[in-house]
Amino acid sequence: MPRRTGEAGSVLHTPILKTTISHRFEAIHNVGAALDEGRIETFYQPIVRLDTSEIVGLEALCRMRMSSGSVVPAGDFHDATTDVRLGSRITQTMMSNVAKDLRYWLDSGIPVQHVGINVSSSDFHKGDLGDRLTKTFGGMNVPLRHIVLEVTESVYLGQRYTAIADEIRTLRSKGLLVALDDFGTGFASLTHLLNVPIDIIKIDKSFVDGIAEGGGGTAIIKGVLGIAGDLGIRVVAEGVETPDQVRRLRTLGCILGQGYHFSKAAGRDATTELLLRFAQQLSASTGKMVQLETYRQRLVH
Question: What is the rounded distance in angstroms from the CA atom of residue 230 to the CA atom of residue 221?
Answer without folding.
Answer: 14
